[in-house]
Design brief:
By secondary structure, the chain is an alpha/beta fold. The chain folds into 2 domains: about 130 residues, 3-Layer(aba) Sandwich (Rossmann fold); about 170 residues, Dihydrodipicolinate Reductase, domain 2, CATH 3.30.360. About 30% of the residues lie in helices and about 30% in strands. The protein has 8 helices and 17 strands. The strands form 3 sheets. It has a 9-stranded mixed beta sheet with strand order 16-13-12-11-7-10-9-8-17. A 6-stranded parallel beta sheet has the order 3-2-1-4-5-6, sandwiched between helices. Strands 14-15 form a two-stranded antiparallel ribbon.
Length: about 325
């Protein structure tokens, strides 16, 4: 039975705690707040306000701390020979993400990044449908991750939320974009963005780039977790807020009609997916990787590419120009 340390049981770390407590592992927990630890219902011998005091007793760690702490914590764990799951973003600087990934590779360790949307059954269907050509030639990808909520204190909304669908698009298209253009705003006056509109240009190898947009923010009422895929033969809308019937496909086409273009609406299909908790799926995948010593499905390079796109978006917002993506 693997000995796994969960570092951080705050707002999102509490969900990790709930899931990990139900898994066949020996669980240790660390958090700066003693009250949180007492409420975690973990034996006193397996909890501490000092995470590092537990490092010698574990095989692997799940890092759910504020993003600025990710690099130092993960680097120390990897140097000690521990496998690591780290929540997104892997780091706030792509060069640090690269260092962690290369260190894990050199040491033969598992490094998995918490890009949770990759583990949703709807995401897997979209990736396979694109690969199989069901959409025809892709034209657009659209994503909206927004809603009225409390901002994260450690990063702006691009690092906190836009990165979810940036990584998802990288996953669906099996490559990062080649360039990015972004407009970011700090309406709350915190010194970091709280509204973000990003345009990504992906190369599909036929001279016709795929145009993708990711919108994120803390101000719009409601809760939006939506992706749209538009192709020449078919389109789809995926609503991640829905438990089972997430995807609806539309066999719509634009057809030449004399000197005009005709919009022909086709069949509509509602797709059902088994209700599965992506967080449970990704943590189970991590445990499986560390037990079998198999590569992670979301390795450090996935985290590196997502951070590289965010860096380019921040640079574009600063200059007002398109920004190329670091490879």
């Amino acid at each position: 039975m693997k000995r796994i340390l969960l570092i951080g049981i705050g707002r999102w770390g509490g969900n990790h705690l709930r899931v990990l407590k139900s898994m066949p592992i020996e669980l240790f927990v660390a958090d700066h707040h003693e009250q949180r630890l007492r409420m975690a219902d973990i034996p006193e011998s397996h909890r501490s306000t000092d995470a590092r005091s537990l490092f010698p007793r574990i095989d692997a760690a799940v890092v759910v701390t504020p993003a600025p702490e990710h690099f130092e914590t993960c680097h120390e764990l990897l140097e000690m020979g521990k496998d690591v799951f780290v929540e997104k973003p892997i780091t706030l600087v792509s060069s640090e993400a690269k260092k962690l990934t290369e260190l894990a590779q050199k040491s033969g360790l598992i490094l998995q990044v918490g890009h949770i949307f990759r583990f949703d059954p709807a995401s897997l269907w979209m990736r396979d449908a694109i690969a199989e050509g069901r959409f025809g030639q892709l034209k657009i990808l659209r994503a909206r991750f927004s809603g009225f909520k409390r901002p994260r204190h450690d990063t702006g909304v691009t690092f906190a939320d836009s990165i979810h669908f940036i990584d998802l698009f990288n996953f669906l298209l099996e490559a990062p974009p080649r360039r990015v253009h972004a407009v970011l705003r700090d309406f709350l006056g915190r010194g970091m963005d709280d509204e973000s509109l990003i345009v990504l240009e992906y190369d599909q190898g036929n001279g016709s780039p795929i145009l993708a947009t990711v919108e994120a923010g803390y101000h719009a009422p409601g809760k939006f977790r939506e992706v749209i895929i538009g192709g020449t033969d078919c389109s789809a809308v995926c609503d991640y807020n829905v438990a089972q019937y997430k995807i609806k496909t539309f066999e719509n086409r634009h057809l030449a009609d004399s000197d005009a273009i005709k919009a022909e609406e086709g069949a509509v299909h509602q797709l059902e997916f088994p209700p599965e908790e992506p967080l449970r799926a990704e943590l189970a995948a991590f445990i499986d990787s560390i037990e079998k010593r198999t590569p992670s499905r979301v390795d450090g390079w996935a985290g590196f590419h997502a951070v590289s796109v965010v860096e380019a978006a921040l640079e574009s917002a600063r200059t007002g120009a398109w920004s190329d993506i670091s490879k």
